Structure formats: structure tokens, C-alpha cells
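Q: Fold this one first, please.
A: Sequence and structure below.
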Amino acid sequence: MAMSFFDQFMSPVYLGIPLMALALTLPWILFPTPSARWLNNRVLTLQGWFINRFTQQLLLPLNPGGHKWAALLASLMVFLISLNMLGLLPYTFTPTTQLSLNMGLAVPLWLATVIIGMRNQPTHALGHLLPEGTPPLLIPVLIIIETISLFIRPLALGVRLTANLTAGHLLIQLIATAAFVLLPLMPTVAILTAAVLFLLTLLEVAVAMIQAYVFVLLLSLYLQENV
């Protein structure tokens, strides 16, 4: 049976049971939990250093009111990086290539930032819909445009993450298929293609980390506007 390149993005099913929940809970099992000892091992020390540094960088542009989101945003960052990186392993499934999952993460968090802005400072939150000094004739048009751009934000968050990971996985599979086909025909070209595949894999590792960071960074910027 001919397999499509997009079959790798189908949610895995075993005995009629979707394994999406297993793919989402597995990353949490892989992280070591802190112990009650005074001294930790190297893995725990590195993990704690990374989370502390990331949290410090994330909270720099935020007001003190937004610091309550530190644990949520740091956890989301580690979770997305884990899902993206584990999806690069052979015979694995990347849940973040599903637009439904990414929208399920983006919409509630974006909506929470909007609700916080409407509750704490409604005048300032609504002021973003109409810049100061706008000519009277442009006021209705600008309000409509800013409202549309506000509701497009969660869609942009989900589509950006999905599109970047999907494109990288498809490109890796295409180049790997080309190298496999060219190996008996043109070994030299196949070796060069394999070298390109190795470099592309390194690039995809960077993309997996950067896209998780961009997702959380944009959420923090949306939060800054409403805090």
C-alpha cells in the first residue's frame, strides 16, 4: 500500500484507542524531579539552571503583575520543547504538528490575557483598538482592523507552530527518501544528500527550540499589553 508523506502527521491509534494522550503525558515522565538533598546531580542542576535563566529572560519586559504567570509560561516552554524535540526521533509522533492541539493551547491562554486586561484596566485594553490622534473618518475602519488583528492572534500562534514543524518534518522525509533512492544509483550524490540531511536535522533541532520560545514569548508580550 502506498504511503503518503502526510501519514506521519496522523494521530497514532492502537487497537482503536488514540494515543494522543500518551504522547502528551510522556515528556513529563522523562524529566527528573527535584530531591530533598542539599546537593543535586548534574542533570537536575542543569535543568534548574535552564528554567531559572529562561524565567529571568521572560520576566524582564513584564510588569510585577505579570510575574504570577512565571510558573505557567516556564512549564509551557519546557513542555513544547520536549514535544518538539521528541518528535525528531525515529518512529515517533509530534503532537505539536496538529493544529487542533496548538489552537487548544493558544486560544485559552490568549483569552486569559484579554480577560485580565478587560478586568484590571478596561480603558487601556480598549485603547489599543484606536490609536491616539486618529482622524475621525478612519475611526470605524481602524476599530474593525484592530479587532480583527486581536482575534487573529491565537490563530497566528497555532498556525506558526504547526507550519514550521510540519514543513521541517516534510523536508527531512523528502531528503531522506531521495538519499535512499539515490544510494544504489549515484552513491556520491547520495552521500552529499545525506550530509545535507544531517545539517537539516541540526537546523530542525534549532527550529524546534526556537518555535517553542517564540510561542511563549508572544504570549508574554500579549500579557504585557494587558497587565
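Q: Good. Now the second chain.
A: Here it is, same layout.
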Amino acid sequence: MPIPCRTGCGKNAMLKRPKTGDALCKECFFWAFETEIHFTITKAELFKRGDSVAVAASGGKDSTVLAHVLKTLNERYDYGLNLMLLSIDEGITGYRDDSLETVKQNRDDYEMSLKILSYKDLYGWTMDEIVAQIGRKNNCTFCGVFRRQALDRGAAMLGVKCIATGHNADDIAETVLMNVLRGDIARLKRCTAISTGSEGTIPRVKPLKYTYEKEIVMYAHYKKLVYFSTECVFAPNAYRGHARALLKDMEKIRPTCIMDIIYSGETMAVKEEVTLPTQRICTRCKFVSSQEVCKACVLLEGLNKGLPKLGIGKSSKAKRMLDEYNTKKEQNLKDATKELDNDGEKTENNCQSNQKCRSNLCKNKRNGLLNNEITENKKSCNNKCSGNCDRTKVIVDNTKVDNLLAKYAIHEPVKKINTDDNIVNVDEDFDTSDNEDVVNIDQEDDTCSASCGTMGSLMGF
């Protein structure tokens, strides 16, 4: 026997609302679903007339439904909003590249402009490259931190007033459970806020805060919306998955537990003596942070320095790792310098420069000599070398120097000046304004890039 719609519209019910248990037809379900979101928006005063709003679009069910509903309500109730889509490409092969095609379809369907930012462009890393460095643990830590900041960067580029995210009631209840289980009081106090963001930053709003995930899926299904349903390949290792499994088991017993948990998080009191972090601006990237240097900058520094675990765990651990890294780097530089100096002592008797000998003299004849003495002493040059100081095609294979220069990106600019008939390479800051006929022999010795015994100017120490 057909069940009539609870609203008394005269139609048969097509579904039972997971949130309330009411039997409704499709049209009444659509109306109830959209009206509740409209009530949430107006009660919390999320938007102002004329605002530009960026909808965080991932191509999934939440962001797709959010974009569709906001467009519908904007037209129905005349919000006067300028809606646009903002999507982040994390660089996850087989997941994000496919979901971005769905986002582009949403752009065409809802007639909204679309801005796509990638981790590769913003940070120089994709999530695939990050996972290759850190392994299959803590993936969501990197992705979540970078994604939040990427949304802020994108919103700043678009010049919007706020960012609308697709966080639903299930997401918020899961976050409350996670923070309780981890004892994270700072996040527990703000995770239930419908609008987040301090003064001077672009706020984020959650129009779907009180909307059940199951109802979002049903709305998308009956509306025949196009969305991407594949789970992220790195998500199964996330801690959130355990909180989600616990919440689903509790929902089977008590469907209202989702709203109950959200209400508990909203009304939970924190003792006055508990010190909570305050939001500030990162000294490096100038985006919102609860520390002097934001988490995104710490994680990125760890990746760039080969310390992928730098931002994982307590800040004291990160400081210790940085101290060890800097100490090791200084020691490596000292060892490399000492080794190069030792190699120079071994080869000081063999002038093997791949350039013309700059003063036509070997090292034993370079003390205080001027150009007018070069010709007279040129014959004695073969006392400690091969006797051919003007050769230009000697190939020197010094891999230690090449590796050191490649590793530390040290470049020493040189320029050429004429001294009589010889071409001499000297430093850019070498001053020849007073006497163009005088060549500084000591400075020439420092710039010898072959194996004449010194590397001081190249090392830059």
C-alpha cells in the first residue's frame, strides 16, 4: 500500500528522510532540503547582498550540491550574490585529475566562472611526490594543511568576500569526535563554528552545517546532478576514517546522534586556565596561522630540506630536527672545504687551468709581480709546471668541485679585461679604474677555477 506524503500534498511518498524519519515525495523533499539550508544561511547571516562568494569545488557530492543549492537559492530569494567556483588540484593521479573534469562540467551547468590552482604551482610539489617522500602515513596532514592555505590564496586572487565549503553535519560531528579523542581543545572550540576566520582574513562559511550526508546523496540522486564519487586513494589511511566508522555505527542505533554531537561541541565549555592559541598572521607567507610560522610553511620547508617529518608532531621535535640538519650541513661544508684544500696542495705543482695562465706565471712566481715583469719571468714558468702556460684546451675532470657547485648553486660572475696582449678573467668587482695596466695577482690566484690550489672565492666562505 502506498504511503502518502507527510506534508499532505496528495502525492505518494518516495523516500524517508534520514534526518527526521518523515515520508516525503520528491518535490516536498527538495523543498524541505533547500528551505533548511536557506534558514541556516539567513539565521547565521553568512552572506551580504552584493558579495562575491567562492564555492570550494572538488567535484564530489557535497560541493556539487552546495553549488547547485546556492545558485537555486540565490535566484529564488534574490541574495544578490556573485558565485564562482574555486578548485584545488592536489596532483593525485587517478583521483583529482578525473574529478576536475566533473568540476568543469559543473561550471558549464551552473554558468559560474572557475579558478583552478595546483599544489605544483603554489608549492612546487604534488601530493604524489609528497607521498613518495613521506610514505603512506600522515598524507592527509600535508594535503589538508596545503589545501586550506591554497583556498585562501585562491580567494585572495579572486577578491571574494568569503569561501563557501561543503562541510556537512557528518563531517562536523566526525571532527568533534576526532578532537575529543585526541584531546585537541583548541580545534574543538572552533570546529563547530559555522563561520571561521579572524579580522583581516577571508572567512569560510558552511551552509551545509546541519545537513546530513545521506540527504545530500539522495538530493543529488533525485536531481540527477553530475558528481564524482571515487574516494581519494590516500584517504583509507586517514585517522578520520576511524571516527567516521564509529559515527556510522552510532547513527544506526540513534539517527539523531549526529546533531547531538554537533550540539555538544557547540556548548562544550573550556576552563579559563586552559591557554588557547590565538589566530595571527604567518611571518613568512602572510596567511592566517596560530603560530609565528604557519604549518604549511613548516611542512614545505621540511620537504625542500629533505626532512618530510619536520611538521609532524610537536614543535619541539621540529626545532630539534632543524638544529640537527643545520649542524650536519655546516659539518659537511667544512669537510668539503678541507678535502678540496687537501686536493689543492697535492696538485699545486701542476698548473692545469683550462684557461690561459692569467699572468703567464706559475704560483711560485706570483708574489708582487707586475705586467712589465711577466715577459722576463715567463721562461722560468716551466720550473714547476709543464712549460706550456698558454694552453687553452686542457680538460680537467674535477667532480668534487662540480658536485659542490651543483649542490650549493654557487656562481661566481667574471668578466674579461685586456692586459697588453693577454685576456685576463677577473671578478666583477675588480677595480681597474685607477691603472688598467696593473693586474692584482692575489685576486687572480683566488679565482683560479682549476687545480692551482685555492677555492676561496668559489666557496664564498
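Q: Anything worth noting on the second one?
A: Residues 315-346 form the longest helix (32 residues).
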